[in-house]
Amino acid sequence: MEVAIIGAGLAGSEAALQLAKRGIKVKLYEMRPDKTTGAHVTGDCAEFVCSNSLGSSDITNASGLLKKEMEILGGELIKIAYENSVPAGNALAIAREDFAQAVTKRIEENPNIELIREEITKIPEGNVIIASGPLTSDKFADAIKEFTREEHLSFFDAIAPIVEVDSINFDKAFWASRYDKGEASYINCPMNKEEYENFYNILINAPRIEQHQVDKNSKYFESCLPVEVLASRGVDTLRFGPMKPVGLIDKRTGVENYAVVQLRQDNSAKTLFNLVGFQTNLKWGAQKELIHSIPGLENANIVRYGVMHRNTFINSSQILNPTLETRERQGLFFAGQITGTEGYTESIATGMLAGINMARKLEGKPLLELPRETMLGALTFYITDKAHLEHISSRDGSLRYLPPQPINSNWGILAPIDLPRKKDKKLKAELLSKRALQLTELIVNAL
Q1: What angle do CA 390, 392, 396 make, to 5 degrees?
Q2: Containing domain of residue 288, as a range?
Q3: Domain count, the chain
């Protein structure tokens, strides 16, 4: 028994480790570093590209619940993530280089995994998991289009700048986590009204990198919007978004700020920090001017500027079952962001499920379709459910179907639950989490 996995990102690496620990041989194909994506900077497996955060670890948060479900189901990368975590308050953030190197080492040393540095341009025969990610190469994207007989939909993802911590002015910046939850692990750059308005004016007038015509017709994903796009929605949009000041007060001054820019630890040495929510497509000179206008970052040494890249995903509602196996071809699975899930945690989780189900298929066991009362089950149901399709009339009167935008884990996709107090959000999260984890435990015990 042998499985080919295309892509050694988060989903592909997780799927490979799931199969390998069950004694199944894997050929894991990764085109990097010989062929780059334009966003990755190394050839390591499971490299984090945008943020270095996996989101909340609290099980009363949707992302935190998904992480706990993965732990119960035997996820491999979630263990490595905790082993390479850096302080981030209530969130799970990782030292991205350490994490990727640890995953790569695990894969290279596993006797059941052969890591092949080669670009795949056709879908192989046999048992295959496609986890080529949102940065799938053009040639392989064409092969997927041919198989699905669907045009890819595309959306933009943007990467936030990174600065050196030693270049930050801590006479103005201060350490804190929102509402003092957990360790004070974020660097906060406060602004008064005048400073914010100056920053805003620089931002909305800053020159942007020109997009190719094909890219101009693509969509931004709502949860990863460039900061300049958010700013274009109104002068206060950022103050109620990534720059919201609530719960962040410098204890040295006691001042309630007008806006706050947060920076999150990016490496284990605590020498690099990224600007939270500052994904951008501004030209580099404009980025430098904008960052240096932020109090505390006047002389910040920028080690990586923000960039944008086009991401692609398939119409999963037409192509996949909730098991992540394709409806048309048995033994072919998709996993990761190319399925229409969004987020690092979601990528790892779908890679885990695809790996588990591929193993079960090869073992002659029924595939695992998780219930909608679990976060991972709800997520895979949502992206594969035809009922979520919108349809529009084309010029000839026929119907054309469009899939929903890529989606993160969230409470809205879970099967509903009866509440004794209808508007108690905290109670709702607690009950939904308890139900999901109990079901996940039962599933694992029954496998």
Answers
A1: 150
A2: 162-306
A3: 2
Any idea what the CATH number is for the domain that residue 196 is in? Answer: 2.40.30
Beta strand 25-30 with 2-6 is: parallel
Q: What is the CATH number of the domain that holds 439?
A: 3.50.50.60
pLDDT in tens, 170-206: 999 999 999 888 788 899 999 999 999 999 999 999 9
Whether residue 87 is found in the same domain as residue 175: no
Q: Give the Å distances, CA to CA, from 185 to 87, 124, 176, 273, 324.
A: 5, 46, 6, 11, 37
Q: Which two tokens stand for residue 20?
A: 């390998």
Q: Are residues 105 and 234 part of one domain?
A: no
Taking a C-beta distance cutoff of 8 angstroms, is the pair 249, 255 a contact? yes
pTM for the whole structure: 0.74
The answer to whether residues 279 and 321 belong to one domain is no
Tens of pLDDT, residue by residue over 280-302, are 889 999 999 999 999 999 999 99
Same domain? For 388 and 435 the reply is yes
| Structure letter (DSSP) for residue 421 | S
Token code pair at residue 445: 């015990």
Contact yes or no for 31/370 (Cβ under 8 A) = no
Provide the pLDDT for residue 213: 38
For 238, 239, 259, 276, 433, the CA distances from 176, given in Å and listed in that order, are 19, 18, 14, 14, 28
pLDDT at residue 49 is higher than 60: yes
